[in-house]
Design brief:
Length: 129
């Protein structure tokens, strides 16, 4: 209730907990942050559900396949898709409904992991001045 009052909108307890965990705020000498200060640093919280997390080993063809995937879904406003490419691996987080399309397009890529996620939570931190 306190967080909802400060944000002036409905807050999901699970989303708040995940956002706080991701913030990794350092507490000095065992001090506890005041709830109001903590919430003021969180900013907006976005919660998405029905997601899958898939990681592939990077290859010479993975970017081409991402482009094909984006072409297939560019008109679909009902799906979520994001990716992060590191030095060795590329991770995609997408709506569960895209799994068949992803599986087909990336069939010859080397899959590292595939994890169904019930929800994902992102928070936008407000910089401390």
């Amino acid at each position: 209730p306190d967080i909802e009052k400060l944000l002036n909108k409905k807050a999901n307890l699970g989303a708040v907990v995940m956002a706080i965990k991701r913030m990794s705020i350092e507490m000095k000498n065992g001090e506890k942050e005041d709830l109001e200060k903590l919430v003021s640093q969180i900013g907006d919280i976005t919660v998405r559900s029905g997601l899958v997390d898939i990681t592939y080993i990077n290859s010479n063809t993975i970017v081409e396949k991402q482009i094909k995937l984006l072409e297939k879904i560019k008109q679909r406003m009902d799906v979520f898709y994001t990716f992060s490419q590191g030095v060795m691996e590329t991770t995609m987080i997408a709506s569960n409904s895209l799994v068949p399309v992803i599986d087909e397009l990336f069939a010859d890529e080397r899959k590292v992991s595939k994890k169904e996620k019930s929800t994902d939570c992102d928070s936008a931190l407000i910089p401390l001045l």
